[in-house]
Amino acid sequence: MLQNYFKIGWRNLLRSKSYSFINITGLAAGISSCLLIVLYISDELGYDRYHEKADRIHRVAVENLARTPAAAAPAMLASYPHLAEQAVRFWPLFASARP
Question: Per-residue confidence at 97, pLDDT binned at 50, 70, 90?
Fold first, then answer.
């Protein structure tokens, strides 16, 4: 019975090649885009989750960039000692060092 279904399906694929090509290409594009979206979402949700205290880590960002003024970390520690235990500043890769 199952062999008969495969035989009929194969005959229909060979009979209408352009229609089959469009359908198979669309299915492949849909599956691959779905997989890419799932991988992207899992990567975004898993950011910094390997730390022991990941729920206590926060990132300060301005306009979707992690660039804030250099004095922001010391000012935050001085202004909000009850909220911030430590602060870290990092430079972008290949950025020139300030004098």
Answer: low
